[in-house]
Amino acid sequence: MCRVSGYIGKKDALPIIMDGLRRQSYGGYDSAGVLIGDGFNLACVKAVGKLENLEKKLENQPLKGNWGLGQIRWATHGAVTEINAHPHQDCKRNIFLVHNGIIENYRDLKEQLIKEGHTFSSGTDTEVLAHLIEKYFQGNLLEEAVRRALKDVRGTYGLLVVAGNDPEKIVAARLSSPLLIGINNGEYILASDPTAIAPYARRIINLDDYEIATVSQDDLRVIKEKIPVFLEFTAEETEKGECPHFMLKEIMAQPETIENAIRGRLLFEEGAVKLGGLDSVSAQLKKINRLILIACGTANYAARIGKYMLEEYAGISAEVDVASEFRYRKPMVDEKTAVIFISQSGETADTLAALKEMKKKGVLTIGITNVVGSSMARETGSGVYIRSGPEIAVASTKAFLGQLTTLAMLTVYLGRQRNMSLVTGGRIISELSNLPEFARQVLKSAPQIEKLAKKYSEFKNFWFIGRKYNFPIALEGALKLKEISYLHAEGAAGGELKHGPLALIDENFPTIALCPSDSVYEKMISNIQEIKARGGPVLAIATEGNKEIKEIADDVIFIPKTLEMLTPMLSVIPLQLFAYYMAALLGCDIDKPRNLAKSCTVE
Ligand code: F6R
Asked: Which atom belonging to ligand 1 lies closest to the Cα atom of 403?
C-alpha cells in the first residue's frame, strides 16, 4: 500500500527519507521515488520495483539537501511504471508531491485542467493534485494553494507537497489516510506510519482529517492546535532481529501479546475487568441489547469468535458482518444497538467507512484497534487498544490474538454489567491469565509442525474444518495458508461438509480438523470419520491427553486444555506455524505476499 515519507531539518535528508520508506515497506509496494531540496533546486529520482532499485540509481545520481520527500507506490490508477511512480509534478516542474490515497474525481479535474492548458505526463489520479496546486499557486504561499486546491478534490489523501519557488518547507495534508509528524529539536520527520518515525523522534503529531500542516526548519504550523502524544513502542520492536521473517517473530511473540493485552485490566477479586477506554460509555453500554461487530479479513474472524463469546457469556445478541458489505446495506439499528469495529491498523478504508455511516446514524460506536491514535481510535472516541505492538508482516497473527484477548475481556466487562456471576467472571479471567503459558507450550510444537509441513507440502489443496468457537479458526487457518503460500485452502464449518465440500475429498485433498475436547468434540469426530471413510488424509488439532484421536487422524498436534471459549487462542497457533513453514518450503515472500497490502487504506 502507498506510504509517504518526508524530512526537514539540519541533517542530510536522503538517508532518513529512504529509511522511512524501508520501514514502511512491509505493506507491499511496486515502485518508489524520492525528491531532495537544496535551496531552490529540487532533484527527483524514481524506480520501479524494490527500494534496492532506487538505491542503485541514487548511487549514480546522489541527492544532497536537508529537506525532501519520498513515496512507495502500490498501483491503483495507472500501470507500474517509473512515470507513474511518485513524486508527481506540475507543468513547470516547480511543485512536487507524494500521495497516499485516491482522488475519486480525478477524471473530471484532469479534463478541466487539460482544457485550461495543463499537460499531464502520468496516468495516475495523483498528478491532478500537482496541477491543481499549480493553478492556485500564483505568487502566494504554497500552503494557501494546497488549501485552495483540496477544496476541489473528492477522495482520500495523506499528502506531502514542496515547491521550488517557496523552498525549505513541506506542506502536509490529510483526509482519511494516515499522516504523522515526528518532532525532534528543530527537525521534523513526516510519514504515513509511526514505524518510520520511531528511530528519529519520540513526540508525534497525528494530523486529523482536513488539517494542513506547514513544516519548515524551525517552525511547524497546523491549522488546528494539536497536542503531541508519546509513541508507545521502541524502534527495536520494528526490527526482525534474529528471526528470518517478521511473521515468525510475531507468531513467537504471542504469549507476550496476551500478557500485554491483559496487563492491569483483570480484577481477580471482583471477577471483572477494567477497560479504561470504555469508562465514558459504561452507562450507555448497560442499556445495549444488541451488538454488531464489523471488521475485515482476519479481524472479521476474530469478530466471529467474539460473537460466540458475547452471546454465550455476556447474554447479548451479537451479529457480525464484513465492513465492505455492511457499509452498503441498510442495517437496522436503534439506540439499544452498539457497533464494535475491529481493526489492527485502525486505517482499513472499508471499516472506517462503515464506522462513519454508523456515526451519522448516531449509534454508539466502539473501536478495538492496535494502533494508538489511528483513524479508528480517533473516530470512535471510546474503545480498547489491544496493545500488540507493531505488526509488520502482512499476514496478521499476533494482532488476531490481541483481538481475541480483548473480546474475551469485553465479554466479561459486558457480562458483569448483566447477569454474569463473580464466579464465572473470575473463571474466565483466571484462565485468561494462564493463556500466555499455554501459548508458550503450543509454540514448543514448532519443530513438529515444520516436519508436518514437509509431509503435507506435496498437496495442493486443503480443507480446514471446525465447529462453534473453532469454525472461525478454520476460516483463519485457510486464509493464512492461502495468503502466504498461494496454495488453495478452504475453511468450512464441520457440519457443512455433507452439504457439498465432501465431494472434493479423496486421498489428494487433506483436511486440517480442529477438534479440541469441547462441547462439539463428538460431532467433529463424526466429521473426521466421514473424511477418513473417503480416503482423505487428516491432520487434527486436539487437546492434550486425548488418546482416541491418534487412532482416527493421520497426524495430531496437541494444545493444552483451556475453557472452550478460549481454545481459539491456542488452536490458531499451530495453523499459523503450519502456513508459515509451508510458505517457507515453497520459497514464498512470507512477509510481503504478492498482491496484498498490510493496511487497505483504499476501498
Ligand atoms: C490477513 C490480514 C487481513 C487483515 C484485514 C483487516 O492476514 O492481515 O485480512 O486482517 O485486511 O486489516 P485491519 O485489521 O488492519 O483492519
From this structure: 14
Q: What is the pLDDT of residues 200-218, one digit of tens each?
A: 999 999 998 889 999 998 7
C-alpha cell at 486: 498461494
Q: What is the pLDDT of residues 3-48, one digit of tens each?
A: 999 999 999 999 999 999 999 998 789 999 999 999 888 999 999 9
* Closest residue by CA, ligand 1 atom 3: 297
- Distance of CA 480 from the midpoint of ligand 1 (Å): 11
Q: Give the residues surrounding ligand 1 with Cβ less than 6 Å away.
A: 296-299, 343-345, 348, 351, 395-396, 479, 483, 599-600
The catalytic position among 307, 480, 598, 600 is 598
Supply 44's cell numbers: 527527483
Whole-number Å distance between alpha carbons of 479 and 488: 9
> How many Å apart are CA 205 and CA 10, to the nearest integer?
20
Please tell me whether residue 473 adopts helix, strand or coil conformation: helix
Residue-by-residue DSSP string for 73-89:
E--SSS-S-TTTSSPEE
H helix intervals, 310-397: 323-326, 349-360, 375-380
Counting from 1 in the atom list of ligand 1, the atom nearest the Cα of 351 is 16
- Helix, strand, coil % (nearest 5) of the chain? 40, 25, 35
Return the pLDDT at 224.
59
Domain architecture of the chain: domains with CATH: 3-238 (3.60.20.10), 246-442 (3.40.50.10490), 446-585 (3.40.50.10490)
Q: pLDDT class for 225, splitting at 50, 70, 90?
A: very low
Cell 476501498, residue located: 603
The C-alpha cell that represents 396 in the structure block: 496478521
* Residues above pLDDT 70, as percent of the chain: 98
Burial class (CB in 10 A: 0-12, 13-18, 19+), 254: buried
Q: For a substitution probing ligand 1, which of 600, 602, 603 has the most ligand atoms within 8 Å of its CB?
A: 600
Q: C-alpha angle with apex 379: 377 to 385, nearest 5 degrees?
A: 15
The three-class DSSP label of residue 537 is coil
pLDDT in tens, 287-343: 999 999 999 999 999 999 999 999 999 999 999 999 999 988 888 999 999 999 999
Confirm whether 598 is a catalytic residue. Answer: yes
- 542-581: pLDDT as tens digits: 999 999 999 999 999 999 999 999 999 999 999 999 999 9
Q: How far is the CA of 391 from the centre of ligand 1 (A)?
A: 11
DSSP letters, 132-189, are: HHHHH-SSS-HHHHHHHHHTT--B-EEEEEEETTS-SEEEEEEEBS--EEEEETTEEE
Q: Relative to the CA of 480, which ligand 1 atom is closest?
A: 7
- Of the pLDDT bands very low, low, confident and very high (cuts 50, 70, 90), residue 436 is very high
- pLDDT score of 139: 73
What pTM, to 2 d.p., does this model score?
Answer: 0.78
Measured CA to CA, the distance from residue 295 to residue 339 in angstroms comes to: 11
